[in-house]
Amino acid sequence: MQFKLTKELIEGRYYVKAKLTEFTELEKSKAKKFGIPTLTLKSSSGVDFRPKITTLAQYEVYGFYKQDEADQYAENIKQQISDLKTKWENLEDTWSNEEAL
Question: Which of 63, 67, 75 is nearest to 15 (CA)?
Answer without folding.
Answer: 63
